[in-house]
UniProtKB/TrEMBL annotation:
Catalyzes the NADPH dependent reduction of L-gamma-glutamyl 5-phosphate into L-glutamate 5-semialdehyde and phosphate. The product spontaneously undergoes cyclization to form 1-pyrroline-5-carboxylate. InterPro entries: Ald_DH/histidinol_DH (IPR016161), Ald_DH_C (IPR016163), Ald_DH_N (IPR016162), Aldehyde_DH_dom (IPR015590), G-glutamylP_reductase_CS (IPR020593), Glu-5-SA_DH (IPR012134), GPR_dom (IPR000965). It comes from Vitrella brassicaformis (strain CCMP3155). It catalyses: L-glutamate 5-semialdehyde + phosphate + NADP(+) = L-glutamyl 5-phosphate + NADPH + H(+). Residues 447-457 have a biased composition (Polar residues). Pathway: Amino-acid biosynthesis; L-proline biosynthesis; L-glutamate 5-semialdehyde from L-glutamate: step 2/2. This is glutamate-5-semialdehyde dehydrogenase. Residues 14-298 form the Aldehyde dehydrogenase domain.
Length: 457
């Protein structure tokens, strides 16, 4: 069944309330949205003790589950939202407040005929459903982006962070009750897996699903809904060390790409090394990473250059594996073209890097590697909405339509066409006036307000 007809008990109301809230949010002023975000930050600060107590309980339970073999260590690493991470959350809200409003911007201005003016302007997508594992800070980042972009939001976090998510949501709910003109149902939280199954059937009222989590989660959601899904299934990021490079710089980039936070989707999983520098580079890398207890899954040509104590022969599956731990697959290649071919065949089109001093080789890599992020002499860990200056991100998309890479405010709007006429009808324009199709600079009418001023002086 389509829309809310197929939704489980309670879910139809949540979806319909979100749709009604989205219709109100679409017309909110920038000031009203920013005021709501300021209140959200205020409530987070006020309720910080409760939030961190809930987070501590989730972490204790998670650590016990890891000890019992019931939870992956990478999930527990992502649970923390205390200390510096909490401060980063607060700063992220300030950054989003400071960003331009993505709604109501003019992208196209065309005079179709005398007195007949066409404009393409940005507008919210509508209702978003975000399903995420661990990472309770994602609830704050996504809620802030949704509010600023005028979208209603339904949040579903993982059971491993249920206390943290509820405490963070309670702060947001308190802020929404105090925010003039902002519906209290602009952001809603659901808790159970059964509710997710029902939500995914609500294609009448939910416009976009964004999953953040494991490969299994993302693929399960894509297979279970007719609602468009924005996201990535794996973070198989590669770094290629070219024959022409600064070896010490390459070591630093590889170390940061892998060990800055190895449980992240933008962490290095595959290392490709040109055969001309393998014998000199790999021992340097192995020495640097010894303190991190990194394990290597190495092909036959890289095996002799890595420490035997921490190296195993690689299988083909290793080059398709997102380890999310201090382990990497290593392969020696004969050329940059071979590296490009390997990445396009084995990677997940997320983020990949070349380390080289040859600008022409770099440009070839950047042009032909088919990924959302392609980097020259920079760590893959830069693939992040906060680091890109987006304030935050709802996720990183490897999709080929609508939005790709870290999805911030720009990825949460679509557009509509506004046509202003004076009684024009197609028959008369075609026969009497003729189409002029004068393309004007949209910067002359950058916002809806300026369009209205031109049309209604």
């Amino acid at each position: 069944m389509n829309g809310t007809e197929g939704c489980g008990s309670g879910i139809p109301d949540i979806a319909r309330q979100a749709r009604a809230a989205a219709q109100q949010l679409a017309g909110l002023s920038t000031e009203a949205k920013n005021d709501a975000l300021r209140l959200f930050k205020e409530e987070l600060v006020k309720q910080r003790g409760l939030i961190q107590a809930a987070n501590a309980a989730d972490k204790r339970e998670g650590e016990a589950a890891v000890s019992a073999g019931a939870m992956a260590p990478s999930l527990v690493k992502r649970l923390d939202c205390s200390g510096a991470k909490f401060e980063t959350l607060l700063k992220g809200i300030d950054d989003i407040i400071g960003l331009p409003d993505p709604v109501g911007r003019c992208e196209l201005s065309t005079q179709l005929a005398d007195g007949l003016d066409l404009y393409r302007v940005t507008c919210p997508i509508g209702v978003l459903a975000i399903i995420f594992e661990s990472r309770p800070e994602a609830a704050v980042q996504i809620s802030s982006l949704a509010l600023k972009s005028g979208n209603a939001l339904i949040l579903k976090g993982g059971k491993e962070a249920m206390r943290s998510n509820r405490a963070l949501y309670d702060a947001l709910a308190a802020a929404l009750k105090r925010a003039p003109g902002v519906p209290a149902t602009s952001v809603q939280l659901v808790d159970t897996r059964e509710e997710v199954t029902s939500l995914l059937q609500c294609d009448k009222d939910i416009d976009l699903v964004i999953p953040r989590g494991s490969n299994a989660l993302v693929r399960s959601i894509k297979d279970s809904t007719r609602i468009p899904v924005l996201g990535h299934a794996d973070g198989l990021c590669a770094v290629y060390v070219d024959e022409e490079c600064d070896l010490q710089q390459a070591v630093s980039i590889v170390e940061d790409s892998k060990m800055n936070y190895c449980s992240a989707c933008n962490a290095l999983e595959t290392l490709l090394v040109h055969q001309k520098v393998a014998a000199s580079f790999l021992p340097l890398l192995s020495e640097r990473l010894a303190a991190h207890s990194v394990q290597y899954k190495a092909d036959t040509r890289s095996l002799p250059h890595l420490s035997a104590q921490c190296t195993q022969p690689a299988t083909q599956e290793d080059f398709h594996t997102e380890f999310l731990e201090p382990t990497m697959a290593v392969k020696v290649v004969d050329s940059a073209q071979e590296a490009i071919g390997h990445i396009n065949a084995h990677g997940s089109h997320h983020t990949d890097c070349i380390v080289t001093s040859n600008s022409q080789t770099a440009e070839t890599f950047l042009q032909f590697v088919d990924s959302a992020g392609v980097y020259h002499n920079a760590s893959t860990r830069f693939a992040d909405g906060f680091r890109y200056g987006f304030g935050a991100e709802v996720g990183i998309s490897t999709n080929r339509i609508h939005s790709r890479g870290p999805v911030g405010l720009e990825g949460l709007v679509i557009h509509k066409y506004r046509l202003y006429g004076r009684g024009h009808v197609v028959g008369e324009v075609g026969k009497k006036y003729g189409f002029t199709h004068v393309h004007r600079d949209p910067r002359d009418t950058p916002t809806v307000d300026s369009i209205q001023t031109r049309q209604h002086p």
